[in-house]
Amino acid sequence: MTTVGEVHTFRGPVSTADLGTTLLHEHVFVRDHELEVNLPDPEWDPAAMVAAAVDGLRRAHALGVRSVVDLTVPGLGRDVALVAQVAARSPVHLLASTGWYAPSALPVTFGVRGPGLLIDGPDPLDALFVRDIEQGIAGTGVRAAMLKIVLDRAGATPDVLRVLAAAAAAHRRTGVPVTVHTDPATHRGREALELLGRHGVDPSRVILGHSGDSEDVDELRALLDSGATIGMDRFGMEHVLPDDRRVRTVLALLRLGYADRMVLSQDAAFYSRVTPPSWRRAHAPHWHLENLPRRVLPMLRAGGATEEDLHQMLVANPARLLATAPVAAGARTGPAAREEER
C-alpha cells in the first residue's frame, strides 16, 4: 500500500518530499522486441547500454538531478526487469509508468478481446494498468507511478479512446496521475482534457506532454487555465524546435505567473530504436539528460527565471503530481463512464 506523501520507485516507496529535482518525462531504453528478433539493431548491446545508462544517471545526479520518471510503456518496448538493473546501480530515483503507447491502433490481439468482442470479457487493459500500479509490472514488483496515454495527429481513434478509458479508470481507482503525449500542432491538449474530463479525471491530475513544442502562448495559457500542468519536456530536440525558442516560451509563461503549472524535461533516452545513439550524436547532440542542468537552466536564469521559479517547476510541481490523490466524490466511474466515450 502507498501511504499519503509516498510514491513508488524501482527500489520501493519514497517520500515525495525526498524526490528533489525531478525530470518528469524521460526514457531509459525505447525498444521494439519484434524488430530485435527479426531485424536486430547492431547498436543494441544490453550490457553496454545498461552501463551507459548507469553512467549517464550518475552524471545527471552530479548535476543535481535526483529523480527521473521513465515514461516507457508498452508500445515502446518496456522492459522493467532490464531497467531495474540500471536502477540498482544508480544514485537517482527511477520511477516506472504504465499505459500504452498507441498513436492510432493497439496490437491486433486487442481487436478480438474485450467487452462485446469475439473473446468477450473485461478489457485486458483495465487489469494491466491496475496491476502495474497496485502489484507491480511483469512480476518484478516494481510498481508504476504514472499513467501514460497518447493523443497524437491521428486523433481519437477507437483504440486511442479505449486506452484513454482504461487509463482513466485506473486513475480513478489509484489516484496515479495521467500524462498525455500530445501533438500541439493539432490542438490535442484541449481534446485530451475534454475526453479525460468525461471520464472523471480532474485536469489538476493531468500533464499535457510535449506542450513545449508550441510557441503559441495564448493556446498554452488556455491549457494552463484549465488547471492542467503542461510539459515543457523536449529540451534538446532541436531538430523539432531549438532550445532557445523553447526557453523563450517558458519565460513568457513565467512572467504571466504560471510557474506552478509547468514541468521541465527532455524526453531523452540512453537508447532508442526510433532514433538510435549514432543518429542522436550526429543530429541532436544536446538531446540527453544533462542538457537541462548544463544548458537550459543557465538560459532560463539569464532570461529572468528565479531560483524559486526553477524549484517550483523541477521540485514542487513533480512532487505534487506524483503524490497519489483520491478522486473527488461524484466522479463518473465504472461502465457508465466508459460508455460515454464509445
TrEMBL record:
Entry-linked InterPro entries: AryldialkylPase_Zn-BS, Metal_Hydrolase, Phosphotriesterase
Cofactor(s) this protein requires: a divalent metal cation
Modified residues (N6-carboxylysine): K148
UniProt KW keywords: Hydrolase, Metal-binding
Cofactor comment: Binds 2 divalent metal cations per subunit.
Binding, Zn(2+) 1: H25, H27, K148, D267
Binding site for Zn(2+) 2: K148, H181, H210
Superkingdom of the source species: Bacteria
GO terms for MF: hydrolase activity, acting on ester bonds; zinc ion binding
Family: Belongs to the metallo-dependent hydrolases superfamily. Phosphotriesterase family.
Protein name: Phosphotriesterase-related protein
Natural source organism: Cellulomonas humilata
